[in-house]
């Protein structure tokens, strides 16, 4: 095949190539998320969903009335998780997600509601690429499952 015919495609299919970030390397996820300010907005939108969506009422009831500390913890955790400076340990100590959530009654419905709120929060970020949203959701599905302690 003459590659000049498909300069942006591969040699076999002619499908247009797309340059994508190598998510998961360095701080590429954090940078694509808008840095620390972008993560703060993501978390604010996430907790707005937790606070307002009927499907998340059970999760909301697991939190104190004031969500400030929960927002701070999730923001700092996500910044480090996305490749930024890991300040969670110095501020709150080491985290074992399963142990940290063991006192809560978390089943499949709660996991799905948590992930739904995260998806809504991601969708509310106008600068987030669809690949970034998918990458984050896939990666967060594992810790969300680790927090489940009932069927």
From TrEMBL:
UniProt-listed SUPFAM superfamilies: Globin-like
Keyword terms, alphabetized: Heme, Iron, Metal-binding, Transport
UniProt cross-references to Gene3D superfamilies, sorted A to Z: Globins (1.10.490.10)
Keyword Endoplasmic reticulum applies: no
InterPro entries listed in its UniProt record: GlbO/GLB3-like, Globin-like_sf, Globin/Proto, Hemoglobin_trunc
MF terms (GO), sorted A to Z: heme binding; metal ion binding; oxygen binding; oxygen carrier activity
UniProt protein name: Globin
Classification of source organism: Bacteria, Pseudomonadati, Pseudomonadota, Gammaproteobacteria, Vibrionales
């Amino acid at each position: 095949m003459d590659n000049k015919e498909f300069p942006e495609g591969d040699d076999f299919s002619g499908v247009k190539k797309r340059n994508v970030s190598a998510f998961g390397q360095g701080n590429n996820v954090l940078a694509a998320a808008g840095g620390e300010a972008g993560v703060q907005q993501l978390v604010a939108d996430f907790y707005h969903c937790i606070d307002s969506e009927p499907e998340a009422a059970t999760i909301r009831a697991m939190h104190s009335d004031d969500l400030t500390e929960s927002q701070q913890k999730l923001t700092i955790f996500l910044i480090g998780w996305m490749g930024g400076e890991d300040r969670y340990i110095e501020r709150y100590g080491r985290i074992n997600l399963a142990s940290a959530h063991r006192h809560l009654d978390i089943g499949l419905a709660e996991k799905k509601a948590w992930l739904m709120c995260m998806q809504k929060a991601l969708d509310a970020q106008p600068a987030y690429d669809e690949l970034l949203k998918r990458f984050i959701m896939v990666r967060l599905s594992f810790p969300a499952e680790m927090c489940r302690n009932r069927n």
